[in-house]
Design brief:
Rossmann fold, alpha/beta, globular, six-stranded mixed sheet, 2 domains, 10 strands
């Protein structure tokens, strides 16, 4: 008996384009490309929209009418859930780490504008966030609603399928004339997206090595997560995939992954000025910085042609406008 169809609701504007970074490629002595996954649509919600296609597909299959998730005050994942809830006529409940600011800005402003029910969690509440999410779900059920809880960042096996689809999309782009890559590099929060691309490589014959940069998770944790997610996807969805024995991870730069360092902000400015491309200071800039540092130390180690997956972009730079502005005031322009 064939496996049941995997629940999915199409949300992303796809395929997202491939862009060669001409000036950086010339500087680095290799071909450096970007998969513009910041352009998936719905307020440029990037990677999160790909994940939510499957996570919310699962929610709708369970007749959910209330989406509950959590994150930081400037969480792009929470903003994405709010956007999808608004588009589908669902209720969105966001548990955000921190206290209510004097003024709503950036992703918080957008989440509120989209109609999300925002709940602020101080550090004590955040330490028990899983319990609070279940409390909010119980509250919704008492009101006659059907809740669905989405873990922070939609970091689930269902969410990883979004990057299986991204990898399949890349394979099709190569088949239709895009260059074949030696390596595909992406930011990793837990390793789920890395797992999705690994599954895509196994299912499509995509030959590129999948490499991630942990931007918040310890480096040592990512390989175990990748293997576990692939294994669970095999069992849950009947996919012909095998947990990888080797998972390649680059060392992340210094920093906590939540507050951009000066070096992260400098990479945002450098890439913007050289390529007209804006990175997210907290994720894609940190990962891109790690990639540049690695190529400086070992130029040939990732092959001749590299694709960097830009999972978030310009809107995620907005909350850091003050820090970026201060950096620009003291940084000379790049020569043309």
């Amino acid at each position: 008996m064939p496996p049941a169809p995997i629940p999915r609701i199409e949300l992303a504007s796809a395929p997202t384009p491939l862009l060669k970074l001409e000036r950086l490629s010339a500087e680095l002595g290799c071909e450096l490309w970007v998969k513009r996954d910041d352009l998936t649509g719905l307020l440029e919600s990037g990677a999160k929209i790909r994940k939510l296609e499957f996570v919310i597909g699962e929610a709708l299959a369970q007749n959910a009418d209330t989406l509950i998730t959590c994150g930081t005050l400037q969480s792009s994942a929470c903003r994405a859930v709010a956007a999808v809830a608004a588009r589908l006529g669902l209720r969105g409940v966001l548990a955000l780490r921190g206290t209510a600011p004097a003024a709503s800005e950036g992703n918080l402003l957008l989440a509120r504008l989209l109609g999300a029910d925002v709940r602020y969690c101080d550090e004590r509440a955040w330490a028990a966030i899983d319990t609070h999410l279940q409390d909010f779900a119980a509250e919704a059920r008492r009101a006659g609603r059907t809740p669905y809880v989405i873990p922070e960042g939609a970091a689930t096996v269902a969410g990883a399928l979004g990057y299986l689809v991204c990898g399949q999309e890349l394979a099709q782009q190569v088949h239709h004339g895009a260059p074949e890559f030696d390596s595909i590099v992406l930011p990793a929060f837990t390793g789920g997206s890395h797992a999705g691309l690994v599954m895509a490589a196994q299912l499509t014959g995509l030959r590129a090595e999948i490499v991630s940069v942990p931007v918040r998770t310890p480096v040592r944790a990512v390989p175990d997560t990748v293997a576990a997610v692939v294994g669970e996807a095999r069992v849950r969805y009947g996919l012909d995939v095998t947990p990888p024995k080797d998972v390649r991870v680059l060392d992340a730069p210094d920093g906590d992954g939540e507050t951009p360092t000066r070096e992260d902000l400098a990479v945002v400015a450098r890439v913007a000025r050289l390529e007209g491309l804006v990175l997210d200071p907290r994720s894609t800039a940190r990962a891109f910085r790690a990639l540049l540092d690695h190529l400086a130390r070992a130029p040939a180690s990732l092959g001749r042609r590299i694709c960097f997956v830009q999972t978030a972009g310009v809107l995620d730079a907005v909350p850091f406008q003050g820090a970026l502005g201060a950096l620009l005031d003291e940084t000379p322009l790049v020569e043309s």
